[in-house]
């Protein structure tokens, strides 16, 4: 009798626990993580200069891994972040990694003291012009400090059309970042050519 009672009590407890488990909400799925894609092949330019990247910095709202967008047709001053998706690092870190990769191919070919490069990231976002039309925008200010010379500044900006959703943001923001780096490298080559004896 005692054995049967214990068995019934155990069965009842198991049923209660099983039922209670269904009352607890399931944990949210882990966020999808994106970066700027595979590293591209680089052909060093003929006017390569030895440039040392000091830093890439951005405003406080670009310090985190959030994928940001704004609805310019509704609240142009309001930034929002996509849920369940994020960058592998902050946009400034992603850009710094890619810029350093480009500069490394030039540094092995150049001689002399390195020129200091500083980059201030100013925009890294998707902008909705309407519910069914959007673009991505990446902008930065580059500051070049050649040894013994005055600093040189260059504003860089890229806008590309994008699908109005998370897929558009994660596909086109990396392309915009690559295009911005192309602008940067072209400008650095111009500066190296102007400085050549």
In summary, what is this structure?
With 197 residues, the chain is of the alpha/beta class. The protein has helices spanning 2-21, 91-107, 166-195, and strands at 32-34, 51-57, 66-71, 79-87, 115-130, 133-145, 152-162. The longest helix has 30 residues, at 166-195.
Average pLDDT metric: 85
The CATH H-level homologous superfamily: ABC-type transport auxiliary lipoprotein component
Structural class: alpha/beta
For the termini, the CA-CA separation is 103 Å
Morphology: elongated
Name the helicity range: 25-40%
Low-pLDDT ranges: none
Q: Tell me the CATH topology.
A: Rossmann fold
Structure description:
- By secondary structure, this protein is an alpha/beta fold.
- It has one domain (35-195): 3-Layer(aba) Sandwich (Rossmann fold), CATH 3.40.50.
- Helices cover 34% and strands 33% of the residues.
- Strands 1, 2, 3, 4, 5, 6 and 7 form a 7-stranded mixed β-sheet that branches.
- Helix 2 packs parallel to helix 3.
Give the key terms.
197 residues, seven-stranded mixed beta sheet, 3 helices, alpha/beta
Secondary structure elements and pairings:
Layout: H1 2-21, E1 32-34, E2 51-57, E3 66-71, E4 79-87, H2 91-107, E5 115-130, E6 133-145, E7 152-162, H3 166-195
Parallel strand pairs: 1-4, 2-5, 3-5
Antiparallel strand pairs: 3-4, 5-6, 6-7
């Amino acid at each position: 009798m005692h054995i049967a009672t214990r068995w019934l009590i155990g069965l009842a407890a198991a049923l209660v626990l099983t039922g209670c488990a269904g009352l607890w909400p399931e944990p949210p799925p882990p966020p999808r993580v994106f970066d700027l894609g595979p590293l591209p092949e680089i052909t060093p330019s003929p006017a390569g200069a030895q440039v040392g990247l000091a830093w890439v910095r951005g405003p406080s709202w670009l310090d985190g891994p959030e994928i940001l967008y704004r609805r310019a047709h509704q609240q142009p001053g309001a930034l929002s972040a996509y849920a369940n998706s994020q960058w592998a690092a902050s946009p400034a870190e992603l850009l710094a990694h890619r810029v350093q990769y480009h500069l490394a191919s030039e540094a092995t070919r150049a001689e002399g003291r390195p020129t200091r490069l500083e980059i201030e990231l100013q925009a890294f976002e998707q902008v909705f012009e309407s519910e069914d039309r959007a673009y991505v925008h990446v902008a930065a200010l580059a500051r070049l400090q050649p040894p013994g010379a005055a600093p040189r500044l260059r504003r860089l900006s890229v806008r590309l059309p994008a699908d109005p959703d998370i897929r558009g943001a994660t596909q086109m923001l990396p392309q915009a970042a690559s295009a911005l780096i192309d602008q940067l490298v072209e400008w650095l080559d111009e500066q190296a050519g102007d400085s050549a004896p």
